[in-house]
Design brief:
Blueprint (H helix, E strand, L loop, with lengths): L13 H14 L4 H6 L3 H17 L5 H15 L2 H13 L21 H14 L7 H35 L12 E4 L9 E4 L1
Length: 199
């Protein structure tokens, strides 16, 4: 249970019901962070538009590199919701999710390519407190992905830091997006029951 309950469908505005319907169709269930942020409708709308724009704009990096860097950031922040959701996204993209079990060993593992290892190390350095990015890392990443690719990678890791820290602060934990044939996601109801929605 999050530290504050999500907005129940029964008390949702017409616009919020549309948001819930859209996300349910897209992901198989309504993600709990959306139901919690729904307490502030303007921020929900702003963040939703932002997420869709970032998704459309972030097309420079190879998908595997971008997804792994975001996933690694979630792991470093110990955001179980982000880890669960990120695993689902990689699975739906046809990426190898079995190797995610070895993400902590990426530096020496043959399961990860050179490009992936560079991005993963950068995600680690960006997520450190204080940030531990070096000039050498930036130069190497720019050489590998170009300046636009470097900016995209930086933006995606920074965005995941924001998501993960917010979810952790509000007590939002994994929702079961990778639990099998169905997603067990607490879509708020007046009784706060857990509903099962086919993925």
């Amino acid at each position: 249970m999050p530290r504050i309950p999500g907005v129940p469908t029964a008390r949702a505005s017409r616009l919020l019901r549309l948001v819930y319907r859209f996300t349910r169709r897209r992901y198989g269930a309504v993600p709990e962070p959306i139901t919690v942020v729904a307490h502030h409708p303007r921020l929900l709308l702003a963040s939703g538009v932002h997420e869709l724009l970032v998704e459309r704009a972030a097309r420079v990096l190879p998908r595997n590199v971008a997804e792994l860097a975001v996933y690694r950031t979630a792991v470093r922040l110990n955001c179980s919701w982000c880890i669960d959701f990120g695993t689902m996204l990689q699975k739906h993209a046809g990426l190898d999710i079995d190797r995610l079990k070895h993400i902590d060993d990426y530096a020496d593992s043959p399961l990860f390519t050179r490009q992936e290892r560079l991005a993963l190390a950068y995600a680690d350095a960006m997520t450190d407190t204080p940030v531990g990015v070096t000039d050498e890392q930036v130069t190497e990443l720019e050489g590998e992905f170009g300046r636009d690719g470097l900016v995209e990678l930086t933006y995606l890791v920074a965005l995941e830091n924001s998501r993960g820290r917010m979810n952790s602060a509000l007590g939002i934990t994994d929702q079961g997006f990778t639990s099998g044939d169905a997603c067990r996601v607490p879509v708020p109801s007046d009784r706060q029951t857990v509903t099962e929605v086919s993925a």
